[in-house]
Amino acid sequence: MKVRIIGSGITGITTAYYLAKNNHQVTIADERRYPAMATSYANGCQISASNSETWNSWKNIIHASKWLFKKDAPLLISLKPDLNKYKWFIKFITAISDRKDNTLETCKMALNSGSLYKLIANEENIEFDMVEKGILHIYKNLHEFKLAKETNQIYKLAGLDRWEVNKTEITNIEPSLSNEDIIGGFYNTTDFTGDIHKFCMELSNVLENKYNVKFIKHHANNLDEELNYFDLVIVCAGIGSKKLASSIGDNLSIYPVKGYSITINKPGINSPWVSLLDDEKKIVTARLGTERLRIAGTAEFSGYNTDIKWDRIRPLIRWAETNFPDINTEDIKPWAGLRPMTPNMMPIIKQSKKNKNIFYNTGHGHLGWTLSAFTAKKISELI
Fold first, then answer.
1. Which domain covers residue 210, as residue numbers?
2. How far is CA 324 from CA 172, 245, 294, in A?
3. What contacts 117, CB < 8 A, 6 or more positions away?
4. What is the pTM of this model?
5. First CA to last CA across the chain, in angstroms?
6. Is the pLDDT of residue 230 over 90?
7. Are residues 2 and 230 in contact, defined by beta-carbon separation less than 8 angstroms?
8. What is the CATH number of the domain that holds 23?
9. Domain total for the chain?
10. Measuring CA to CA, how many Å separate 203 from each of 13, 77, 127, 159, 368?
11. Following DSSP, what letter does each residue of 202-258 receive, concatenated?
């Protein structure tokens, strides 16, 4: 079949891969000239089953309310009136009761997805600065640490082997990390990191040259019109998916949540190689080869706005300098992207209710890199 995929980020690229391997004629359309230039450009780069916990909790609601007027807060909600945002948060609160089940399912998807990425990389000879040193979660707050122990039980049920580590063990795992205020952590060696943009660019070259996938610069507005030239349309358009779905009467509950990152060039020898996650600050790290370190995080509910605010970048730099006293932060590149978040934090992988020839693979939120290989394979099996 002739298949149009809308969106050339990690979700669209991996979806195209599995469809092309199944001998479909695939064309990827994106309004940007090159693949992976939006949310897949400079994210936290973790493929992380250990970050599968959904955000649906009263703890996060309370934190957000306390941080309303704090510009550098880990979780920031704009006070600007927005009806879509209000509707989204009502559904978010409703989904609190499903947090454990959704976390369990997300962790299982993440574990499967990580294995699929490695298979793709091996089969197609893709190099993307992969570092297989696991992910270390650190805690400086006793209450947060106790909650993490509860979440770890869910991860164990999903099949993730993640264990508790003390301060001495943390230093042994990542010697460059200052453990002065750390009370404990969790570590697993299943998770890994890699440059999402590099992976997308390399896989897109494979798709063009080996599987005859076509890439075109095209701004899609109406899904029915796309079907004039194709048998099937698959929407992998991130935050643009909601508007596209509305063109045929489908309603996707997706809201853009801004995340920030800095890429530190030449961070020095006393900078981390093991990927870290500071759950309280909502910050992650990933090593991208010998010369780059990515630090990313925070969440900002401020609509369709990609402005880079210094109030949001400064905490990332400060966090790096606090936790790695000898790091070199003279050369940094800031970035901001919009995560397509669903209220229950679960990706949308389904056939359209309005047209049986339209499918959705979108709404991965902050786990687009982590989950896309799995959801891409799953959507290909529905066709």
1. 2-382
2. 15, 45, 14
3. 47, 194, 199, 373
4. 0.96
5. 10
6. yes
7. yes
8. 3.30.9.10
9. 1
10. 7, 36, 10, 29, 16
11. HHHHHHHHHS--EEEE-----HHHHTTT-SEEEE--GGGHHHHHHTTT-----EEEE
Residue linked to tokens 């990425």: 117
Which amino acid does the sequence have at 24?
H
Structure tokens at 165: 């580590």
Count of all residues that appear for the chain in the document: 383
Distance CA 191, CA 110 (A): 9
Identify whether the C-beta of residue 256 lies closer than 8 Å to the C-beta of residue 338: yes
What is the distance between the alpha carbons of residues 241 and 259, in angstroms, rounded to a whole number? 18
Report DSSP letters for 49-82, one per residue.
GGG---S-SHHHHHHHHHTTT-TT-SEEE--S--
The 10s digit of each residue's pLDDT in 305-343 is 999 999 999 999 999 999 999 999 999 999 999 999 999
Q: In DSSP terms, which residues pair with 122 in a beta bridge?
A: none
Sign of CA dihedral 97, 377, 253, 285: positive
Please report which helix (H) or strand (E) contains residue 259, including its range.
Answer: strand 255-265
